[in-house]
Amino acid sequence: MDLVIKNGVIITAEETYKADIGVKNGKIIEIADRIEDHGAEVVNAEGKYVLPGAIDAHTHLQMPFGGTVSADSYEAGTRAAACGGTTTVFDFALQQKGHGIIQTAKERDKLCAPQACVDYAFHVVISDLRPEILDEVESAVDYGIPSFKVYMVYKKEGLMADDGVLCQLLQKSKETGALISVHAENPDLIDLRTETYLKEGKTSAWYHYMSRPEFVEAEADKRAIHWAKSLNTPIYIVHLANKEGVEEVKRARDMGFEIYAETCPQYLHFTNEVYKREDGRNFVCSPPMKGEESQEALWMGIKTGDISTIATDHCPFQTSEKDWGKDDFTKIPNGCMGIENMYPYMLSEANKGRISFNKVVEVCSLNPAKIFGCDELKGSIVVGKDADIVIYDPEKNFTISKNNMHSDVDYTIWEGVKLKGYPIMTFSRGKLVFEDGEFLGQPGWGKFIKRKRKKLL
Ligand code: URP
Ligand code: ZN
Ligand code: ZN
Protein backbone atom coordinates (compact mmCIF):
# COMPACT_ATOMS: atom_id res chain seq x y z
CA MET A 1 0.00 0.00 0.00
CA ASP A 2 1.36 3.47 -0.89
CA LEU A 3 -1.36 5.65 0.61
CA VAL A 4 -4.25 5.25 3.03
CA ILE A 5 -6.98 7.89 3.26
CA LYS A 6 -8.58 7.37 6.65
CA ASN A 7 -11.83 8.37 8.37
CA GLY A 8 -13.32 10.39 5.50
CA VAL A 9 -16.89 10.37 4.22
CA ILE A 10 -16.77 8.89 0.71
CA ILE A 11 -19.22 10.41 -1.75
CA THR A 12 -19.92 8.78 -5.09
CA ALA A 13 -22.84 9.35 -7.47
CA GLU A 14 -24.75 6.58 -5.71
CA GLU A 15 -23.59 6.48 -2.09
CA THR A 16 -22.35 8.42 0.94
CA TYR A 17 -20.54 6.41 3.62
CA LYS A 18 -17.59 6.47 5.97
CA ALA A 19 -14.62 4.23 5.07
CA ASP A 20 -10.86 4.11 4.55
CA ILE A 21 -9.30 3.92 1.07
CA GLY A 22 -6.09 2.08 0.20
CA VAL A 23 -4.07 3.11 -2.84
CA LYS A 24 -1.21 1.30 -4.57
CA ASN A 25 0.52 2.09 -7.87
CA GLY A 26 -2.01 4.83 -8.60
CA LYS A 27 -5.05 2.56 -8.20
CA ILE A 28 -7.67 2.19 -5.49
CA ILE A 29 -7.00 -1.32 -4.18
CA GLU A 30 -9.13 -1.46 -1.04
CA ILE A 31 -12.10 0.27 0.55
CA ALA A 32 -12.95 -0.91 4.07
CA ASP A 33 -14.15 0.27 7.48
CA ARG A 34 -10.57 0.21 8.70
CA ILE A 35 -7.36 -0.28 6.71
CA GLU A 36 -4.00 -0.82 8.43
CA ASP A 37 -1.39 1.47 6.89
CA HIS A 38 1.67 -0.81 7.36
CA GLY A 39 3.94 2.21 6.96
CA ALA A 40 2.14 3.72 3.98
CA GLU A 41 1.54 7.46 3.83
CA VAL A 42 -1.61 8.30 5.80
CA VAL A 43 -4.03 11.15 5.16
CA ASN A 44 -6.50 11.73 7.99
CA ALA A 45 -9.73 12.88 6.35
CA GLU A 46 -11.79 13.05 9.58
CA GLY A 47 -14.57 15.62 9.09
CA LYS A 48 -13.85 15.83 5.34
CA TYR A 49 -15.53 14.46 2.24
CA VAL A 50 -13.65 12.17 -0.14
CA LEU A 51 -14.79 12.49 -3.74
CA PRO A 52 -13.72 11.22 -7.16
CA GLY A 53 -11.81 13.86 -9.13
CA ALA A 54 -13.95 15.81 -11.57
CA ILE A 55 -13.78 15.30 -15.33
CA ASP A 56 -13.97 18.47 -17.39
CA ALA A 57 -15.17 17.18 -20.76
CA HIS A 58 -14.96 20.55 -22.53
CA THR A 59 -11.81 22.69 -22.60
CA HIS A 60 -9.95 24.76 -25.19
CA LEU A 61 -6.33 25.00 -24.04
CA GLN A 62 -3.80 26.96 -26.09
CA MET A 63 -6.29 26.86 -28.94
CA PRO A 64 -5.96 29.21 -31.92
CA PHE A 65 -9.25 31.11 -31.88
CA GLY A 66 -10.70 34.62 -32.19
CA GLY A 67 -7.56 36.04 -33.81
CA THR A 68 -5.28 34.82 -31.00
CA VAL A 69 -4.60 31.71 -28.95
CA SER A 70 -6.59 30.93 -25.77
CA ALA A 71 -4.57 32.16 -22.82
CA ASP A 72 -4.08 28.96 -20.79
CA SER A 73 -1.44 26.58 -22.12
CA TYR A 74 -1.84 22.86 -21.48
CA GLU A 75 0.42 23.33 -18.46
CA ALA A 76 -1.45 26.31 -16.99
CA GLY A 77 -4.89 24.86 -17.73
CA THR A 78 -4.22 21.43 -16.27
CA ARG A 79 -2.42 22.99 -13.28
CA ALA A 80 -5.52 25.08 -12.58
CA ALA A 81 -7.71 22.00 -13.11
CA ALA A 82 -5.78 20.07 -10.45
CA CYS A 83 -6.14 22.96 -8.01
CA GLY A 84 -9.92 22.87 -8.49
CA GLY A 85 -10.25 19.11 -8.02
CA THR A 86 -10.44 18.24 -11.73
CA THR A 87 -8.25 15.26 -12.52
CA THR A 88 -9.16 14.61 -16.16
CA VAL A 89 -9.55 17.14 -18.94
CA PHE A 90 -11.02 16.59 -22.41
CA ASP A 91 -9.60 19.12 -24.81
CA PHE A 92 -10.73 19.94 -28.36
CA ALA A 93 -8.27 19.24 -31.16
CA LEU A 94 -9.23 21.30 -34.22
CA GLN A 95 -8.82 19.53 -37.57
CA GLN A 96 -6.90 21.71 -40.05
CA LYS A 97 -7.98 21.63 -43.69
CA GLY A 98 -6.43 18.58 -45.39
CA HIS A 99 -5.47 16.88 -42.12
CA GLY A 100 -6.70 13.52 -40.87
CA ILE A 101 -8.39 12.75 -37.54
CA ILE A 102 -5.64 10.72 -35.87
CA GLN A 103 -3.03 13.11 -37.30
CA THR A 104 -4.94 15.98 -35.64
CA ALA A 105 -5.01 14.23 -32.27
CA LYS A 106 -1.34 13.20 -32.47
CA GLU A 107 -0.22 16.73 -33.32
CA ARG A 108 -2.15 18.11 -30.34
CA ASP A 109 -0.74 15.38 -28.14
CA LYS A 110 2.82 16.45 -29.00
CA LEU A 111 1.99 19.81 -27.43
CA CYS A 112 -0.06 18.47 -24.56
CA ALA A 113 1.91 15.43 -23.32
CA PRO A 114 4.97 17.28 -21.95
CA GLN A 115 2.77 19.87 -20.26
CA ALA A 116 -0.20 17.95 -18.86
CA CYS A 117 -0.40 17.97 -15.05
CA VAL A 118 -3.52 15.74 -15.00
CA ASP A 119 -4.84 13.04 -17.32
CA TYR A 120 -6.39 14.11 -20.60
CA ALA A 121 -8.20 13.03 -23.74
CA PHE A 122 -9.18 14.68 -27.00
CA HIS A 123 -12.41 15.21 -28.88
CA VAL A 124 -11.55 15.96 -32.51
CA VAL A 125 -13.43 18.86 -34.14
CA ILE A 126 -14.30 17.93 -37.72
CA SER A 127 -14.04 21.00 -39.94
CA ASP A 128 -13.08 19.38 -43.24
CA LEU A 129 -15.25 16.34 -43.88
CA ARG A 130 -14.15 14.31 -46.89
CA PRO A 131 -14.86 10.64 -47.77
CA GLU A 132 -11.44 9.69 -46.32
CA ILE A 133 -12.34 11.40 -43.05
CA LEU A 134 -15.64 9.55 -42.81
CA ASP A 135 -13.72 6.32 -43.42
CA GLU A 136 -11.21 7.27 -40.75
CA VAL A 137 -13.83 7.61 -37.99
CA GLU A 138 -13.72 3.87 -37.33
CA SER A 139 -9.91 3.83 -36.99
CA ALA A 140 -10.10 6.82 -34.65
CA VAL A 141 -12.61 4.96 -32.48
CA ASP A 142 -10.25 1.96 -32.41
CA TYR A 143 -7.36 4.32 -31.58
CA GLY A 144 -9.26 5.42 -28.45
CA ILE A 145 -10.90 8.60 -29.71
CA PRO A 146 -14.62 7.85 -29.93
CA SER A 147 -15.91 11.44 -29.70
CA PHE A 148 -16.05 14.18 -32.32
CA LYS A 149 -17.48 17.63 -32.44
CA VAL A 150 -19.05 19.80 -35.08
CA TYR A 151 -19.70 23.49 -34.88
CA MET A 152 -23.05 24.56 -36.28
CA VAL A 153 -21.60 28.11 -36.11
CA TYR A 154 -18.28 29.91 -36.72
CA LYS A 155 -18.73 30.21 -40.49
CA LYS A 156 -16.14 33.00 -40.93
CA GLU A 157 -13.66 31.10 -38.78
CA GLY A 158 -13.88 28.17 -41.24
CA LEU A 159 -15.10 25.79 -38.54
CA MET A 160 -18.80 25.51 -39.40
CA ALA A 161 -20.38 22.22 -40.46
CA ASP A 162 -23.67 22.32 -42.35
CA ASP A 163 -26.54 19.90 -41.77
CA GLY A 164 -25.24 17.56 -44.48
CA VAL A 165 -21.91 17.20 -42.70
CA LEU A 166 -23.59 16.76 -39.33
CA CYS A 167 -25.92 14.06 -40.68
CA GLN A 168 -23.10 12.12 -42.38
CA LEU A 169 -21.20 12.11 -39.11
CA LEU A 170 -24.25 11.11 -37.11
CA GLN A 171 -24.84 8.20 -39.48
CA LYS A 172 -21.18 7.15 -39.18
CA SER A 173 -21.38 7.39 -35.39
CA LYS A 174 -24.18 4.82 -35.44
CA GLU A 175 -21.99 2.39 -37.38
CA THR A 176 -18.89 2.87 -35.23
CA GLY A 177 -20.06 3.59 -31.68
CA ALA A 178 -18.72 7.15 -31.81
CA LEU A 179 -20.49 10.11 -30.23
CA ILE A 180 -21.00 13.41 -32.06
CA SER A 181 -21.13 16.62 -30.03
CA VAL A 182 -22.56 19.85 -31.39
CA HIS A 183 -22.19 23.53 -30.62
CA ALA A 184 -25.75 24.50 -31.48
CA GLU A 185 -26.63 28.05 -32.52
CA ASN A 186 -28.15 29.31 -35.78
CA PRO A 187 -25.35 30.98 -37.81
CA ASP A 188 -27.55 32.85 -40.29
CA LEU A 189 -29.60 34.52 -37.59
CA ILE A 190 -26.44 35.49 -35.71
CA ASP A 191 -24.97 37.08 -38.85
CA LEU A 192 -28.17 38.90 -39.72
CA ARG A 193 -28.74 40.29 -36.24
CA THR A 194 -25.08 41.22 -35.81
CA GLU A 195 -25.07 43.18 -39.08
CA THR A 196 -28.23 45.04 -38.06
CA TYR A 197 -26.87 46.04 -34.64
CA LEU A 198 -23.56 47.19 -36.07
CA LYS A 199 -25.37 49.32 -38.69
CA GLU A 200 -27.41 50.88 -35.88
CA GLY A 201 -24.20 51.64 -33.95
CA LYS A 202 -25.17 49.17 -31.18
CA THR A 203 -21.74 47.82 -30.40
CA SER A 204 -21.55 47.15 -26.64
CA ALA A 205 -21.21 43.67 -25.10
CA TRP A 206 -24.99 43.59 -24.52
CA TYR A 207 -25.41 43.22 -28.29
CA HIS A 208 -23.31 40.07 -28.23
CA TYR A 209 -26.20 38.62 -26.22
CA MET A 210 -28.84 40.30 -28.42
CA SER A 211 -27.29 38.90 -31.58
CA ARG A 212 -27.65 35.33 -30.27
CA PRO A 213 -30.48 35.25 -27.70
CA GLU A 214 -32.43 32.23 -26.43
CA PHE A 215 -34.36 31.42 -29.63
CA VAL A 216 -31.24 31.48 -31.81
CA GLU A 217 -29.70 28.73 -29.70
CA ALA A 218 -33.00 26.84 -29.29
CA GLU A 219 -33.55 26.51 -33.05
CA ALA A 220 -30.21 24.79 -33.51
CA ASP A 221 -30.76 22.53 -30.48
CA LYS A 222 -34.05 21.43 -31.99
CA ARG A 223 -32.53 20.91 -35.44
CA ALA A 224 -29.63 18.85 -34.08
CA ILE A 225 -31.99 16.72 -31.99
CA HIS A 226 -34.30 16.33 -34.99
CA TRP A 227 -31.45 14.86 -37.06
CA ALA A 228 -30.33 12.57 -34.26
CA LYS A 229 -33.87 11.29 -33.74
CA SER A 230 -34.50 10.87 -37.47
CA LEU A 231 -31.30 8.88 -37.92
CA ASN A 232 -31.74 7.16 -34.54
CA THR A 233 -28.25 8.06 -33.38
CA PRO A 234 -26.93 9.47 -30.12
CA ILE A 235 -25.95 13.13 -29.90
CA TYR A 236 -24.34 15.30 -27.22
CA ILE A 237 -25.18 19.00 -27.03
CA VAL A 238 -22.33 20.99 -25.53
CA HIS A 239 -22.83 24.09 -23.38
CA LEU A 240 -26.64 24.11 -23.45
CA ALA A 241 -27.82 27.45 -22.07
CA ASN A 242 -31.50 27.98 -22.92
CA LYS A 243 -34.85 26.79 -21.59
CA GLU A 244 -36.42 25.65 -24.88
CA GLY A 245 -33.34 23.57 -25.54
CA VAL A 246 -33.68 21.85 -22.15
CA GLU A 247 -37.34 21.12 -22.94
CA GLU A 248 -36.44 19.61 -26.32
CA VAL A 249 -33.74 17.42 -24.76
CA LYS A 250 -36.25 16.23 -22.17
CA ARG A 251 -38.86 15.40 -24.83
CA ALA A 252 -36.38 13.38 -26.85
CA ARG A 253 -35.01 11.53 -23.82
CA ASP A 254 -38.54 10.73 -22.63
CA MET A 255 -39.10 9.14 -26.05
CA GLY A 256 -36.06 6.93 -25.40
CA PHE A 257 -33.47 8.65 -27.61
CA GLU A 258 -29.82 8.75 -26.53
CA ILE A 259 -29.57 12.52 -26.24
CA TYR A 260 -27.10 14.09 -23.83
CA ALA A 261 -26.86 17.71 -22.77
CA GLU A 262 -24.01 19.46 -21.03
CA THR A 263 -24.21 22.83 -19.35
CA CYS A 264 -21.52 24.99 -17.75
CA PRO A 265 -21.13 26.67 -14.35
CA GLN A 266 -21.14 30.15 -15.94
CA TYR A 267 -24.71 29.60 -17.19
CA LEU A 268 -25.77 28.36 -13.76
CA HIS A 269 -24.34 31.35 -11.91
CA PHE A 270 -24.47 34.39 -14.21
CA THR A 271 -27.32 35.75 -16.32
CA ASN A 272 -27.29 38.04 -19.37
CA GLU A 273 -27.24 41.00 -16.92
CA VAL A 274 -23.43 40.66 -16.92
CA TYR A 275 -23.34 42.12 -20.45
CA LYS A 276 -24.61 45.43 -19.05
CA ARG A 277 -21.58 45.69 -16.75
CA GLU A 278 -18.60 47.91 -17.50
CA ASP A 279 -16.49 44.73 -17.86
CA GLY A 280 -19.26 42.94 -19.80
CA ARG A 281 -16.88 41.97 -22.61
CA ASN A 282 -15.00 39.69 -20.18
CA PHE A 283 -18.13 37.51 -20.04
CA VAL A 284 -18.47 37.23 -23.81
CA CYS A 285 -18.70 33.58 -24.77
CA SER A 286 -20.90 31.65 -27.17
CA PRO A 287 -23.59 30.81 -26.49
CA PRO A 288 -23.96 33.83 -24.21
CA MET A 289 -25.37 33.78 -20.67
CA LYS A 290 -29.16 33.88 -20.88
CA GLY A 291 -32.06 35.17 -18.77
CA GLU A 292 -33.20 33.90 -15.38
CA GLU A 293 -35.87 31.57 -16.80
CA SER A 294 -33.23 29.69 -18.75
CA GLN A 295 -30.99 29.53 -15.72
CA GLU A 296 -33.79 28.02 -13.63
CA ALA A 297 -34.52 25.50 -16.40
CA LEU A 298 -30.85 24.45 -16.43
CA TRP A 299 -30.86 23.81 -12.67
CA MET A 300 -34.12 21.88 -13.05
CA GLY A 301 -32.61 19.88 -15.93
CA ILE A 302 -29.74 18.85 -13.66
CA LYS A 303 -32.17 17.72 -10.98
CA THR A 304 -34.34 15.70 -13.38
CA GLY A 305 -31.33 14.12 -15.10
CA ASP A 306 -32.09 15.69 -18.49
CA ILE A 307 -28.80 17.55 -18.26
CA SER A 308 -26.23 14.79 -18.02
CA THR A 309 -22.96 16.65 -17.49
CA ILE A 310 -21.34 19.86 -16.33
CA ALA A 311 -18.18 21.02 -18.10
CA THR A 312 -16.47 24.38 -18.33
CA ASP A 313 -15.89 25.34 -21.98
CA HIS A 314 -12.72 26.86 -20.50
CA CYS A 315 -11.42 29.18 -23.24
CA PRO A 316 -9.99 32.28 -21.56
CA PHE A 317 -8.39 35.34 -23.10
CA GLN A 318 -6.34 38.07 -21.43
CA THR A 319 -7.88 41.44 -20.58
CA SER A 320 -5.93 43.12 -23.38
CA GLU A 321 -7.45 40.69 -25.89
CA LYS A 322 -10.99 41.13 -24.56
CA ASP A 323 -10.36 44.90 -24.87
CA TRP A 324 -10.13 44.57 -28.67
CA GLY A 325 -13.90 44.65 -28.50
CA LYS A 326 -14.34 47.69 -26.25
CA ASP A 327 -16.12 49.54 -29.03
CA ASP A 328 -17.30 46.59 -31.13
CA PHE A 329 -18.57 43.36 -29.59
CA THR A 330 -17.71 41.37 -32.73
CA LYS A 331 -13.99 41.89 -32.02
CA ILE A 332 -14.10 40.28 -28.56
CA PRO A 333 -12.53 36.79 -28.61
CA ASN A 334 -15.29 34.44 -27.46
CA GLY A 335 -14.66 32.40 -24.35
CA CYS A 336 -14.55 32.42 -20.55
CA MET A 337 -12.69 30.62 -17.78
CA GLY A 338 -13.88 28.00 -15.31
CA ILE A 339 -11.50 25.02 -15.24
CA GLU A 340 -10.55 25.69 -11.59
CA ASN A 341 -14.06 26.75 -10.58
CA MET A 342 -16.40 24.03 -11.83
CA TYR A 343 -16.09 21.45 -9.03
CA PRO A 344 -15.70 23.94 -6.15
CA TYR A 345 -18.71 25.94 -7.40
CA MET A 346 -20.96 22.90 -7.89
CA LEU A 347 -19.91 21.39 -4.56
CA SER A 348 -20.54 24.71 -2.84
CA GLU A 349 -24.05 24.77 -4.33
CA ALA A 350 -24.54 21.28 -2.87
CA ASN A 351 -23.16 22.44 0.48
CA LYS A 352 -25.66 25.32 0.42
CA GLY A 353 -28.44 22.75 -0.16
CA ARG A 354 -29.36 23.39 -3.81
CA ILE A 355 -28.61 19.85 -5.02
CA SER A 356 -27.07 16.77 -3.43
CA PHE A 357 -23.34 16.07 -3.33
CA ASN A 358 -24.09 12.75 -5.06
CA LYS A 359 -25.68 14.65 -7.97
CA VAL A 360 -22.59 16.85 -8.29
CA VAL A 361 -20.38 13.75 -8.49
CA GLU A 362 -22.76 12.26 -11.05
CA VAL A 363 -22.73 15.24 -13.43
CA CYS A 364 -19.11 16.31 -12.91
CA SER A 365 -17.43 12.90 -12.81
CA LEU A 366 -19.41 9.68 -13.32
CA ASN A 367 -21.56 10.74 -16.29
CA PRO A 368 -18.75 12.26 -18.40
CA ALA A 369 -16.68 9.12 -17.72
CA LYS A 370 -19.52 6.86 -18.87
CA ILE A 371 -20.69 8.96 -21.83
CA PHE A 372 -17.18 9.44 -23.22
CA GLY A 373 -15.95 5.94 -22.46
CA CYS A 374 -13.37 6.13 -19.67
CA ASP A 375 -15.47 4.75 -16.80
CA GLU A 376 -13.25 1.69 -16.41
CA LEU A 377 -10.64 4.09 -15.01
CA LYS A 378 -12.41 7.25 -13.89
CA GLY A 379 -15.62 8.67 -12.45
CA SER A 380 -15.99 7.00 -9.07
CA ILE A 381 -14.31 5.73 -5.93
CA VAL A 382 -14.33 2.00 -6.52
CA VAL A 383 -11.64 -0.69 -6.19
CA GLY A 384 -9.76 -1.01 -9.47
CA LYS A 385 -10.21 2.57 -10.66
CA ASP A 386 -7.53 5.25 -10.78
CA ALA A 387 -6.94 6.96 -7.45
CA ASP A 388 -8.13 10.35 -8.73
CA ILE A 389 -9.38 11.64 -5.40
CA VAL A 390 -10.37 14.99 -3.93
CA ILE A 391 -10.46 15.73 -0.19
CA TYR A 392 -13.07 18.40 0.40
CA ASP A 393 -13.46 20.52 3.52
CA PRO A 394 -17.16 21.45 3.85
CA GLU A 395 -16.31 24.06 6.50
CA LYS A 396 -13.71 25.99 4.50
CA ASN A 397 -15.05 29.27 3.15
CA PHE A 398 -13.40 30.56 0.00
CA THR A 399 -13.75 33.74 -2.03
CA ILE A 400 -12.60 33.36 -5.63
CA SER A 401 -10.08 35.93 -6.78
CA LYS A 402 -7.56 36.14 -9.58
CA ASN A 403 -4.89 36.02 -6.85
CA ASN A 404 -5.90 32.59 -5.55
CA MET A 405 -6.35 30.97 -8.97
CA HIS A 406 -3.62 28.98 -10.74
CA SER A 407 -4.14 29.71 -14.42
CA ASP A 408 -2.15 32.19 -16.54
CA VAL A 409 -5.06 34.56 -17.12
CA ASP A 410 -4.94 38.08 -15.68
CA TYR A 411 -8.56 38.19 -14.43
CA THR A 412 -11.41 35.86 -13.60
CA ILE A 413 -15.14 36.25 -14.29
CA TRP A 414 -15.59 34.48 -10.92
CA GLU A 415 -13.90 37.32 -8.97
CA GLY A 416 -15.57 37.82 -5.56
CA VAL A 417 -17.84 34.76 -5.76
CA LYS A 418 -18.11 33.23 -2.27
CA LEU A 419 -18.03 29.46 -1.91
CA LYS A 420 -19.07 27.36 1.08
CA GLY A 421 -16.54 24.51 1.32
CA TYR A 422 -13.47 23.95 -0.84
CA PRO A 423 -11.13 21.16 -2.01
CA ILE A 424 -8.04 20.93 0.20
CA MET A 425 -6.23 18.06 -1.54
CA THR A 426 -6.25 16.56 -5.03
CA PHE A 427 -4.66 13.22 -5.91
CA SER A 428 -4.05 12.27 -9.54
CA ARG A 429 -3.51 8.49 -9.79
CA GLY A 430 -2.47 8.52 -6.12
CA LYS A 431 -0.02 11.41 -6.48
CA LEU A 432 -0.71 14.53 -4.42
CA VAL A 433 -0.96 17.38 -6.94
CA PHE A 434 -2.69 20.06 -4.84
CA GLU A 435 -2.77 20.86 -1.12
CA ASP A 436 -4.14 23.88 0.75
CA GLY A 437 -3.99 26.33 -2.13
CA GLU A 438 -0.68 25.13 -3.52
CA PHE A 439 -0.04 23.25 -6.76
CA LEU A 440 2.30 20.30 -6.06
CA GLY A 441 2.14 18.41 -9.35
CA GLN A 442 4.36 18.46 -12.37
CA PRO A 443 4.00 18.99 -16.11
CA GLY A 444 4.28 15.72 -18.03
CA TRP A 445 2.58 13.70 -15.27
CA GLY A 446 -0.79 13.60 -17.07
CA LYS A 447 -1.42 10.64 -19.39
CA PHE A 448 -3.44 10.39 -22.59
CA ILE A 449 -6.55 8.29 -21.88
CA LYS A 450 -7.61 5.86 -24.59
CA ARG A 451 -11.35 5.41 -24.47
CA LYS A 452 -14.07 2.95 -25.49
CA ARG A 453 -17.73 3.99 -25.54
CA LYS A 454 -20.76 1.94 -24.52
CA LYS A 455 -24.34 2.76 -25.46
CA LEU A 456 -26.07 3.92 -22.28
CA LEU A 457 -29.78 4.57 -22.75
O1 URP B 1 -17.18 31.23 -26.53
C1 URP B 1 -16.75 30.08 -26.58
N1 URP B 1 -17.51 29.12 -26.13
N2 URP B 1 -15.50 29.86 -27.06
C2 URP B 1 -14.90 28.61 -27.26
C3 URP B 1 -15.32 27.92 -28.49
C4 URP B 1 -16.68 27.26 -28.33
O2 URP B 1 -17.63 27.72 -28.94
O3 URP B 1 -16.84 26.32 -27.58
ZN1 ZN C 1 -18.90 26.07 -28.47
ZN1 ZN D 1 -16.24 25.14 -26.35
Brief synopsis:
This protein has 457 residues and is an alpha/beta fold. It has helices at 74-83, 101-112, 131-143, 163-176, 187-199, 206-211, 214-231, 243-254, 265-269, 292-304, 319-322, 342-351, 357-371, and strands spanning 3-11, 16-24, 27-32, 41-44, 49-52, 54-59, 64-65, 68-69, 86-94, 119-125, 147-151, 179-183, 235-237, 259-263, 309-310, 389-399, 418-428, 431-435, 438-439. The strands form three sheets. Strands 1, 2, 3, 4, 5, 16, 17, 18 and 19 form a nine-stranded mixed beta sheet that branches. Strands 6-9-10-11-12-13-14-15 form an eight-stranded parallel beta sheet.
Characterise the protein shown here.
With 457 residues, the protein is α/β, with parallel strands linked by helices. It has 2 domains: 3-51 and 379-439, Roll (Urease, subunit C, domain 1), CATH 2.30.40; 53-371, Metal-dependent hydrolases (TIM Barrel, Alpha-Beta Barrel). It has 13 helices and 19 strands. It has helices spanning 74-83, 101-112, 131-143, 163-176, 187-199, 206-211, 214-231, 243-254, 265-269, 292-304, 319-322, 342-351, 357-371; strands at 3-11, 16-24, 27-32, 41-44, 49-52, 54-59, 64-65, 68-69, 86-94, 119-125, 147-151, 179-183, 235-237, 259-263, 309-310, 389-399, 418-428, 431-435, 438-439. The strands form 3 sheets. Strands 1, 2, 3, 4, 5, 16, 17, 18 and 19 form a 9-stranded mixed β-sheet that branches. Helix 3 packs parallel to helix 4 and helix 4 (163-176) crosses helix 7 (214-231). The model has no long low-confidence stretch (mean pLDDT 98). One zinc ion binds next to loops.
